[in-house]
Design goal:
The chain has five helices and no strands. The chain is 70% helix and 0% strand.
Length: 186
């Protein structure tokens, strides 16, 4: 005679505790929302900084030489790229970790805002950091006649190269992960 195993019945009290814990864990994602709101405030501060730099750029433009104009433009681009980086983190972080954003039928809604997964977020962030770093190196190079510091230039180039290599390794890692059926590219 063979015995039929009794079907498993979970303890109702333990199941309620488990469901409660899972609910707390799932809802804890909302603790990230204030971080993203704080980054929106940071974006407003960057806007203020941009307009301040723009005003200085306009005031100095009539007496500035070509190198000063280029440096001023690079400073404005630098602040814009940092603003872009903040925006990427706010939208894709909120979308990936807190809640989906419903764009409704807004005609100006950028496609990428609700389509960036975590791997894409990492790549966009590193690409922005590489661009910001490149601008810092270019600004130092453009200012080489005024203040040349070989050690500072070496550090700027070294850090920039670390960012470039990191971005390449991340891109390769994500590609290899997605080619082999991993979750890295999804």
């Amino acid at each position: 005679m063979t015995e039929t195993p009794a079907s498993y019945q979970p303890n109702p009290k333990l199941k309620r505790i488990e469901n409660g814990m899972e609910s707390v864990l799932f809802n804890s994602r909302w603790l990230m929302a204030p971080f993203y709101l704080g980054l929106v405030v940071c974006l407003a501060v960057m806007l203020f900084k941009f307009f301040k730099k723009l005003w200085e750029f306009i005031l100095l433009a009539p007496s500035a030489n070509e190198a000063d104009i280029i440096l001023g433009a690079l400073s404005l681009i630098d602040v814009s790229l940092i603003g872009n980086l903040i925006l990427i983190v706010v939208f894709s972080g909120y979308e990936n970790f807190v809640s989906r954003i419903d764009p409704g039928d807004h005609p100006d809604w950028p496609e990428w805002m609700t389509k960036v997964d975590f791997a894409g977020l990492k790549q966009k962030m590193l690409a922005s950091i590489v661009a910001i770093s490149a601008i810092q190196v270019l600004k130092a190079f453009m200012n080489i006649d005024v203040a040349f510091d070989a050690q500072k230039m070496g550090w700027l180039v070294g850090v920039h190269l670390v960012f470039v290599v990191s971005a390449l390794l991340l891109a390769l890692s994500d590609r290899w992960g997605s080619d082999h059926g991993g979750e890295a590219g999804h």
